[in-house]
Amino acid sequence: ARADRSPGEFYQLDFEMAFSTQEEVLKVAEKVIGDTFRTFSDWKVTEGPFPRIRYEDAMLKYGTDKPDLRNPLEIIDISDLFVSTDFAPFRGKTVRAINVPGAASKSKSFFENMLKFATEIGMKGLGYVKVTEEMTFQGPIDKFLSDSDRQELIARAGLQPGCVLYFIADSAEMAPKLAGQIRTEVANRLHLIDEDRFE
Description:
The chain is an alpha+beta fold. The protein is 33% helix and 14% strand. It is elongated.
């Protein structure tokens, strides 16, 4: 630990391994990190081998290169559905979507507070649709969707009755990051993250 930091604020583990391969380094890291967490915490820890996620996949599915895998929500890219849309906020944008099972029954204030959060992080809005028991859509984005769009969204996002599908549209650079923040915030507000384990 550096002398100019308070105890417990900063820790670093350096590996010094001669003539080692990437695979060997990763195996040592899995053992040392796993053992360290098990020694100093009662939480369950991911057993090795740890999941290996390509950067591009992490940015798409989680909106960050350091995802909390306790969060079950995943992001999908639906930009191709809105290439020639009449809905100006989506036109020419990178569009991401997040399926949130069971959220359709949430109160009006839940959706208002999520919109407030979205604007606080720099979004111009946070579109969504609710999926009814009859597998129809309700919500501010529905009128901009064709029947084929709806069927494609049901298939791609794995929508079921009671789901909410959030839409995040922005530049190619910002959309993944904003979607990642929405993914985390929704999971926190719905208590979807298991607080008794590391993953």
